């Protein structure tokens, strides 16, 4: 067992993201996880992630911890709130935006490609 305290997590800058801070909680280097990585994303009002992942074989699970976010896919857009989980299949593109006036936090778990 390895424990990663969010207070000790290091920020990183994922590509195509803006108005947010991402903290890596688990990956091969940090915990030895072989099949997935996990991070916590904090989005300011207006912050988000541009359209991406249509070319990615990774599976992604988003869990909204606080606030609300709009997730857009080819099927439309959905507002998700604290307590909601979103699964994105391989090659399913998405964008994310915080349209509210409050910060939002989301746990991100993704398989390694």
UniProtKB/TrEMBL annotation:
Residues 41-109 form the Cupin type-2 domain. It comes from the Bacteria. InterPro entries: Cupin_2, RmlC-like_jellyroll, RmlC_Cupin_sf. It holds the Pfam family Cupin_2. CDD domains: cupin_YP766765-like. This is Cupin domain.
């Amino acid at each position: 067992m390895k424990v990663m305290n969010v207070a000790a997590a290091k920020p990183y800058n994922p590509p195509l993201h803006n108005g947010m801070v991402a903290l890596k909680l688990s990956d091969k280097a940090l915990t030895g996880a072989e099949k997935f990585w996990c991070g916590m994303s904090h989005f300011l009002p207006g912050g988000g992630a541009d359209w991406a992942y249509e070319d990615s074989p990774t599976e992604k699970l988003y869990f909204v911890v606080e606030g609300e976010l709009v997730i857009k896919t080819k099927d439309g857009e959905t507002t998700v709130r604290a307590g909601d989980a979103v699964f994105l299949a391989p090659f399913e593109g998405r964008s994310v935006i915080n349209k509210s006036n409050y910060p939002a936090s989301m746990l991100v778990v993704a398989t390694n490609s």
